[in-house]
Amino acid sequence: MSGISIQGKKVSKQFGDLKVLEGVDFRVEPGEFVAIVGRSGCGKSTLLRLITYLETVTDGEILVDDKPVNAINSDIRFVFQDPRLLMWKSALRNVVLGSPGRSEEDARKALRRVGLEGREKDWPGVLSGGQRQRLSLARALVGQPRALLLDEPLGALDALTRIEMQRLIERLWKEQNFTAILVTHDVSEAVLLADHVIVMDEHKIVKTIKIELSRPRVRNNDFAYYEQEILKYIMKNETGKEETDYVI
Ligand SMILES: Nc1ncnc2c1ncn2[C@@H]1O[C@H](COP(=O)(O)OP(=O)(O)OP(=O)(O)O)[C@@H](O)[C@H]1O
Ligand SMILES: [Mg+2]
User: Fold this and answer.
1) How far is the CA of 109 from the centre of ligand 1 (A)?
2) Any idea what the Cα angle at residue 32 is, between residues 216 and 99, rounded to 5°?
3) Which of 12, 116, 191, 243 could form a disulfide with 59 if both were Cys (CB 3.0 to 4.6 A apart)?
């Protein structure tokens, strides 16, 4: 199963009088890995919720596989910062229940893929933060989704666990060929994982940057160049200056 394309055409979203997105255009190609960065409150999570039809657009349209979205699509799965597990169910049951129609065998395979073999019977409460996030990845991926939307999935993890999880996400993406959209506050994480980085600010996409680095990526001078470039666009509106170099 391969990834799907996800497109927004002049997407606007308002909550009452609050304008959150205004005329946003983007296109994510099948199997592409896109990161979205931008300051808190600029509408990143709202955009993901519109793609999954958890919210509906005020104006414009979202197209998945070039067809307008008008229902929740089981080919698209979400992973959140908070793993949202059923604490009174075993790891295995969490995966099975999270994807109706999937067998225990599928769930065991998914747990193996994320490195949780042997933890099937454990309660989520005894797993570490990183393991809980692996479990939530297994639950999202067991049904072989064609797109995975990740809303700051690693935000609550320590630095070393984050690095492990970034490698895991990249490996699963390569193995399963889904389209990935990752919202992150971590510019370095965006450069590490994404084919394109979308920078959002004040209801809009202000810049899309193509990351032309081979994988697996190493934190060399070229890597740092992209980090600086992205930061420049994030900070631009704050300082009014475009050319400043920011120390990371
Ligand atoms: N259901 C809702 N009702 C009213 N306002 C909302 C709703 N959902 C989001 N908002 C508002 O929309 C704006 C954008 O929120 P959103 O969660 O998309 O931001 P974000 O970019 O994901 O921020 P963060 O980086 O802090 O997660 C915020 O001002 C938020 O309060
Ligand atoms: Mg958010």
Assistant:
1) 36
2) 100
3) 12
